[in-house]
Amino acid sequence: MNRAIFRHHGLLRHVDPLRFAEDHFAILLPLPDRLGVNAWSQLDALTGSGEHWEMLNPSSFAKPSAALEQLARDMNVDRTQDPMTLLRGISAEIFSRFGYSQKITRVDSPIDDALQAGSGVERRRNARPKES
Question: So where are the chain's domains?
Answer without folding.
Answer: 1-29, 59-132
